[in-house]
Amino acid sequence: xxxxxxxxxxxxxxxxxxxxxxxxxxxxxxxxxxxxxxxxxxxxxxxxxxxxxxxxxxxxxxxxxxxxxxxxxxxxxxxxxxxxxxxxxxxxxxxxxxxxxxxxxxxxxxxxxxxxxxxxxxxxxxxxxxxxxxxxxxxxxxxxxxxxxxxxxxxxxxxxxxxxxxxxxxxxxxxxxxxxxxxxxxxxxxxxxxxxxxxxxxxxxxxxxxxxxxxxxxxxxxxxx
Length: 225
Hints:
By secondary structure, the protein is mostly helical. It folds into 2 domains: about 1-130, no CATH class; about 135-225, no CATH class. The chain has 13 helices and no strands. The chain has helices at about 1-5, 10-25, 40-45, 55-60, 65-70, 70-80, 80-100, 105-125, 130, 150-155, 160-165, 180-190, 205-215. The radius of gyration is 19 Å and the shape is globular. The N and C termini lie far apart (about 40 Å).
């Protein structure tokens, strides 16, 4: 939750709600960042305009009981503004000033503008770039793509065709060590000390079956051909 606050995004509660609606109604008017409306809309335009009536209808149907029962998520929702200013603005600006004798102006420019703007655009690229350009080795019938560039800037979140085909896989990728999948390594590391648990993933047999039935086999990674 604290690392999420550093990124300066909307509260976890709202992110989870949007993500669940996105998966259930992907590439339709119910999708909050519908990529069929173009790159700009799916990248940043969707947070600059009023939500589509279909999304508003669908988001009311999403079950969020598990999220509302999570005290950490609800703490984040209640104090989102304070957490944003402390962990996304104040601490990143203070650290270089205090420990590296950086000027306040340079600290503000690098942390509030360069770092924060880059982080937002890297995260948004999953909704836009990974829905418009790349390969579809697992399911050629859906729009989400596997995009190596997106993986590089997000720590492994670019295997988006895989993620939409097997959304329950905690790795969001078939291969936990390829495409710089640092996110999976982070989760797996905490699973070793019991802080992450009940990790779900499809069997290799199921992945192979799906690839041969609906995947674009010309784009299947060489390790699984």
